[in-house]
Request: fold
Amino acid sequence: MRLQDKIAIVTGAASGIGRGIAEAYAREGATVAIADLSLDAANAAAAEIATSGGKAMGIAMDVANEAQVEAGVAAVAKAYGSVDVLVSNAGIQHIAPLVDLAFADWRKMLAIHLDGAFLTTRACLRRMVEAGRGGAIVYMGSVHSKEASPLKAPYVTAKHGLIGLCKVVAKEGAKHGVRANVICPGFVRTPLVEKQIPEQAKELGITEQDVIKNVMLKETVDGEFTTIADVADIAVMLAAFRSNALTGQSIVVSHGWFMQ
Ligand code: NAD
Reply:
């Protein structure tokens, strides 16, 4: 039980990677707040954790909405006392060539990924500083925090930006025992990826099989997708790490697609 008695908030945890991390944290003894757009979906994920013996609650939160983030984090602190771990994971993808990219879509992407990371960080960091028992903040970056791909300008921009935010949080958080790190996964078969396979096939004029083989997994060492469990393992390790020795870092878990 590496996260016994820890209180964790995972954003975007009703689905995909966030959900896998929430489940892994609960298995390690943490009490987990599942924050997502739909309260019903968040509650359903929390209920499933509870049926396997874990402790969880659902909260409705649009991470790009300051009032909702403040209210959601306050509700978790009220219910459980404080917040020890934040996983800033909520995210979406938007596929478009730059010349066709609407300003509204650019702004929406940056709002969810960067405003969301900032707002949830600020709200949770305040609780961590107040409680004086340290903490961990984990950002869900991507190989696209390190590399670019065509058709993903706002996503690549935002994911690179998370590394900058993480480094500042590592520096400001250190004296409070708060560590910040970024996980950078390769492609994981979640709804976010399933949706973009046909979209990329259409934009690039190739088959869906070619998108998987020759776009998504082309640069991996073995042609394999990264899994939710792979990412959750790293998220547990980063949340449980015991000192400031591991902070301000970005860890790539991508079957060798990107090598540092
Ligand atoms: P997903 O679509 O399965 O889950 C994303 C969740 O985020 C959903 O439950 C959605 O409702 C929620 N969400 C979206 N906008 C939100 C908002 N404004 N406020 C709160 N919640 C919101 O996707 P996923 O693949 O699990 O992605 C999770 C994170 O992992 C994202 O940040 C994504 O960029 C990142 N990531 C995914 C992959 C991949 O291949 N799947 C690779 C690298 C990084």
